[in-house]
C-alpha cells in the first residue's frame, strides 16, 4: 500500500466509518436486470459437482490399487 496504517490511523478510520454507516445505505440491486445478474454470482459452473465426482473416482481407484497389492 502507499501509506502506513498506524493504530491511530486505523482508529480514526473506524470512527469515520461508524459515522458514515455505509451498511445502512446499501440497497442491493433494484432493477430486474440487476437482480438477475446478482442471482448468477453464486453459480460456479457446476465445478463443485465435477470435483466431487472426480474425488469419488480417485478414492475408488486408490481402494482398488490397495486391494490388489
Describe this structure in words.
By secondary structure, this protein is mainly alpha-helical. The protein has a domain at 45-69. The protein is built from four helices and no strands. It is elongated. It starts with 6 loop residues before the first helix and ends with a helix.
Descriptors for this entry?
69 residues; mainly alpha; single chain
What topology emerges from the helices and strands here?
Layout: H1 7-20, H2 22-25, H3 32-40, H4 47-68
Can you summarize this structure?
The protein has 69 residues and is mainly alpha-helical.
Straight-line N-to-C gap: 56 Å
The low-confidence runs, each spanning 5 or more residues with pLDDT under 50, are none
The coarse overall form would be elongated
The main pleated sheet reads as: none
Rg over CA atoms, rounded to whole Å, is 25 Å
Report helical residue fraction.
Answer: over 70%
Amino acid at each position: 500500500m502507499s501509506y502506513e496504517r498506524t493504530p491511530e490511523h486505523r482508529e480514526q478510520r473506524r470512527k469515520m466509518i461508524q459515522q458514515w454507516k455505509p451498511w445502512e445505505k446499501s440497497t442491493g440491486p433494484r432493477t430486474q436486470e440487476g437482480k438477475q445478474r446478482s442471482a448468477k454470482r453464486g453459480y460456479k459452473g457446476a465445478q463443485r459437482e465435477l470435483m466431487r465426482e472426480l474425488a469419488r473416482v480417485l478414492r475408488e481407484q486408490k481402494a482398488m490399487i490397495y486391494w490388489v497389492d
